[in-house]
Design goal:
Blueprint (H helix, E strand, L loop, with lengths): L1 H23 L4 H23 L5 H27 L2 H22 L6 H17 L8 H5 L4 H22 L8 H21 L10 H22 L4 H8 L3 H12 L5 H19 L1
Length: about 280
């Protein structure tokens, strides 16, 4: 069940980031995040009373702290997705968001089997391979370094997501999904305050709204499945499975945007499947 939830979370995160990236290329990033998070808030607020067994103020507060980290992370990744190729940004971000929770989990007593460790290592290597998006057919392009701003922004986004994972992992199962309610509430309130003080406009064109709507819905459900997985299993395992979401982003970018998929990326996708199988069997 934990492995299934982790994989589902990865698929939803990848699809949500893909749609959010497309929307941010057509309208202001600020409006994309605000509307997407508002949609997510409404959805999670409607389902929370029917899912939660109890309301815990401590978990609600932890969710708020996680929400701030998540907001910064999503702002950074959307900005990077707007200016750089999706098949670079998402993998780099996911490496940072996977490694830190693994270190945190093992440092605080999570015992991993040899099979789990092997699967995690293959998973991290797979993410690295997926991130190699430069053309293999052009020697000149192969030698070109990735833009420093793109690497920095993607890594910072990953650090923020890792913080979100760690903080939200500290909540308890009976209170889910109330921590996500506070996370979304904080992010929406912060965005509204920023919008008011900076006098930003929130209008977007009608063709972009479906992209934003589904981005917000998929991202919220992805967070919910991640929360359910961490409450039922080890953070170090769930974080790695969830961080394989670039596979979804890469496939969607290849299918809809015709972005180039190299041999290394193909090997990375196969490695991701292998890593999932090992983690599930461990």
């Amino acid at each position: 069940m934990v492995v299934f939830l982790g994989i589902l979370s990865a698929a939803l995160f990848g699809a949500g980031d893909f749609l959010g990236g497309l929307a941010s290329r057509r309208t202001a990033i600020f409006s994309v995040i605000l509307i997407a998070h508002s949609i997510g808030l409404v959805f999670i607020l409607l389902v929370a009373p029917f899912m939660a067994e109890e309301f815990l103020l401590g978990d609600f507060f932890r969710g708020a702290v996680a929400g701030i980290s998540g907001l910064i992370g999503i702002a950074l990744i959307f900005h990077a997705l707007q200016r750089g190729p999706m098949t670079v940004v998402a993998p780099i971000t996911s490496i940072a968001s996977a490694v830190i929770p693994v270190i945190w989990g093992t440092a605080y007593g999570e015992n991993l089997s040899t099979v789990h460790i092997t699967g995690i290592c293959i998973g991290l290597m797979s993410i690295f391979l997926i991130s190699r998006v430069r053309s293999e057919s052009s020697e000149t392009k192969e030698r070109e370094p990735l833009p420093p701003w793109l690497i920095t922004e993607s890594l910072l986004s990953g650090l923020c997501f890792a913080s979100f994972y760690i903080v939200i992992d500290g909540t308890s199962g009976p209170s889910e999904p109330w921590p996500l309610v506070s996370a979304r509430l904080v992010s929406v309130c912060c965005l509204l305050l920023i919008g008011v003080f900076t006098k930003r406009t929130f209008t977007v064109s009608s063709p972009v709204l479906p992209l934003i709507f589904w981005s917000g819905m998929l991202d919220t459900v992805a967070n919910l499945t991640f929360l359910m997985a961490t409450n039922r299993g080890m953070l170090s395992i769930v974080a790695v499975l969830t961080s394989l979401y670039p596979a979804t982003t890469v496939i969607l970018a290849r299918w809809f945007l015709k972005e180039h998929l190299t041999r290394l990326q193909v090997f990375g996708l196969l490695g991701a499947l292998t890593a999932t199988a090992l983690i599930a069997g461990g």
